[in-house]
Give the backbone structure.
Amino acid sequence: MTHDAAALLVRPASESDTATIAHLAEEAGMGVLTPRGTSHVAVSEGRVVGFIRIVEAGGDRYVNPIVVAASAQRQGVGRALMEEARTRYGALLFVARGSAVPFYTALGCERVGRERISPALGEDCDTCPDLATCSPVPMIYR
């Protein structure tokens, strides 16, 4: 199914989105997300096809995480979620999976030093079983 970017709605997540967000996170191999931050969802044709969660730490705002359903990838959903979050919250820090760096670079994100990432969020990478294959890259979206 193709998702027309113009027909994509990004809105704050509601209580009724909780199960879908949990399913998308699990499908993406993230396990159970700890409850924190503020989530927004991307809706196409009445169906949630992705979400972004914004977490505040140390005076900065972080993308933690962003997930797009496998069936909706490469269709502008991730871009729409990131652009909406940046418009709403300003500069966003995050740690990208190494394989996703080309997407974020094309979006205009830049690499930053590891010291820019709050230890409260950086520890997610340190304890992740996929650390070696993930090759995490700290980034900022201004």
